[in-house]
Design a protein that fits this description.
By secondary structure, this protein is α/β, with parallel strands linked by helices. The chain has one domain: Rossmann fold (3-Layer(aba) Sandwich). 44% of the residues lie in helices and 15% in strands. β4, α5 and β5 form a beta-alpha-beta unit. α9 packs across α11. The model has no long low-confidence stretch (mean pLDDT 93). It catalyses: GDP-beta-L-fucose + NADP(+) = GDP-4-dehydro-alpha-D-rhamnose + NADPH + H(+).
Length: 329
């Protein structure tokens, strides 16, 4: 990255986008090189606004971290909003970036793109080999479309226009800037809030959704940001030696998982809650296991560095500093 390069972070106020912003600055990128827009300034689902932005700005690289996200409850309650918003924003950003001559773009997807019963750990070539998890299928379909957008533009315009649009698929993310909404958050921030409130109230027990037996993998968001920048900056001959035109995405994770019950116990210990942990088996579990095969990324020279225990500690500090008051309201 030279001083002249301009980098657009779509979704810079979200958990992942803000982490990418922090990482770029920490790696020496000048603030003057980084371009951001809030939702109030530009609605990414509105094609005309996105077109005007890319035509006015001289963008060289795009981190497409913007997305409408949520946990099982949110995905089940708002399926139309999840598929529409994500399809529109990624189509607008990819196409208008291409139309404005942007050569490099990184699309951030999700591990939910893989079939519900994909062989574990889930390798990149498991994509489109079986049915998706019903509870988040609309979101997953939108993310699959984003991967195929990047692949299709590369196939049609890569050689003639010199574009190189890449995709990374993170496992479950958590950390600073997470959403702690009581219904619409993902499992780890939801547990942090629930155990914190239970400790404050002196509750005798905390009930978690499902049986507690499904296994999940978790990645600290600053590690995800570092991986994204690493993949973006790989030389084309290195990156494409580990991908192919119809399978261009790369998994990002730790390669380790644990059960939801074990996760709950870990969060309770960090928060200092000492009551009982009970399971409500009437609530959905989601897929029985979701572990990423991260061999391809490791072969490209990157590994996660933040342990789950350390990451939960940092996430809880962030909750106490920035989210506790809002959560209590």
């Amino acid at each position: 990255m030279t001083q002249q390069r301009r980098i657009f972070i779509a979704g810079h106020r979200g958990m992942v986008g803000s982490a990418i912003l922090r990482q770029l600055l920490a790696q020496g990128v000048s603030p003057a090189q980084i371009v951001t827009r809030s939702h109030a300034d530009m609605d990414l689902t509105e094609q005309a606004q996105v077109r005007a932005f890319f035509q006015a700005e001289r963008i060289d690289e795009v981190y497409l971290a913007a997305a409408k996200v949520g946990g099982i409850h949110a995905n089940s309650t708002y399926p139309a909003e999840f598929i529409y918003a994500n399809l529109m924003l990624e189509a607008n950003v990819v196409h208008q970036a291409f139309s404005a001559g942007v050569k490099k773009l990184l699309f951030l997807g999700s591990s939910c793109i893989y079939p519900r019963l994909a062989p574990q750990p889930m390798a990149e070539d498991a994509l489109l080999t079986g049915p998706l998890e019903p509870t988040n299928e609309p979101y997953a379909v939108a993310k699959i479309a984003g991967i195929k957008l990047c692949e299709s533009y590369n196939r049609q315009y890569g050689a003639s226009h010199g574009i190189d649009y890449r995709s990374v698929m993170p496992t479950n993310l958590y950390g600073p800037g997470d959403n702690y909404h009581p219904q619409n958050s993902h499992v780890l921030p939801a547990l942090i809030r629930r155990f914190h409130e239970a400790r404050e109230a002196g509750a005798a027990s905390v009930t978690i959704w499902g049986t507690g037996t499904p296994k999940r993998e978790f990645l600290y968001v600053d590690d995800m940001a570092a991986a994204s920048i690493h993949v973006m900056n790989l030389a084309p001959e290195v990156y494409h030696a580990h991908t192919r035109p119809m399978l261009s995405h790369i998994n990002v994770g730790t390669g380790e998982d644990l059960s939801i019950g074990e996760l709950a116990a870990l969060v309770a210990r960090e928060v200092g809650y000492q009551g009982r942990i009970e399971c409500d088996s009437s609530k959905p579990d989601g897929p029985p296991r979701k572990l990423m095969d991260v061999q391809r990324l490791q072969n490209l020279g990157w590994r996660a560095t933040t342990s789950l225990a350390d990451g939960i500690h940092l996430a809880y500090l962030d909750f106490l500093q920035n989210h506790r008051t809002a959560a209590a309201s």
